[in-house]
Amino acid sequence: MLRYLPIALVAALLLFDGFVHGRWTGRWQVSMELQSATERLQRVPMVLGDWQGETLTPLSDREVQQAGFTGYLNRSYKNYQTGATIRILLACGRPGPISVHTPDICYRGAGFQAAGGKTRLVEKIGGLTAELWQAHFTKGDPNSPLQLKVLWSWNKANAWQAPDNPRMIFAGNSALYKLYVVQETMRDDQEAAKACSEFLGVLLPPLNRSLFSKS
Description:
Blueprint: H1 5-25, H2 27-39, E1 47-48, E2 51-55, H3 61-67, E3 69-79, E4 85-93, H4 95-100, H5 103-109, E5 113-114, E6 119-125, E7 128-138, E8 146-155, E9 160-161, H6 166-169, E10 176-186, H7 190-212
Antiparallel strand pairs: 1-2, 2-3, 3-4, 4-10, 5-7, 6-7, 7-8, 8-9, 8-10
């Protein structure tokens, strides 16, 4: 029995050293913060004013792994007064992979063509200011007026941002949220633009409360 004691001591010391190193470097804390941030996705309400949410088809395991998501929501919201429908993809993960996969890359990889460059959109909703990138994509017949309007932004601490270099801006954070807002629209469709702005107005305040409120 005594001959096995040194092995047990070495194993215990190794485990203790790993635990201390994890606490010292913050590895365990980062993991817990990321898990907590991911779990808060489920707080996001299905009903937002006149907009009723519906869960869409889950992404494939391969897509989730490639994007670096630890969790996500894939939903559509339909306004039961006007019939307008807007989709969202809200994801959480480590800043590295979450900050680099943007629609500029993702939609082109899926066969879409960018219709012009991206522009930065600033929405003021009550006391909240949100920055989002905005771009339009088309697929198929280039003469078809149908297109996708895509907005995207990141949030690490209750402020939606659209920086030029998100990988650098968000480096060092334990968790990061990314939001896609996608709307099928016609070119120069003012009603669609109005619906999208209205949707952001009812989405962002409860979204921030869901993701960053302690209660």
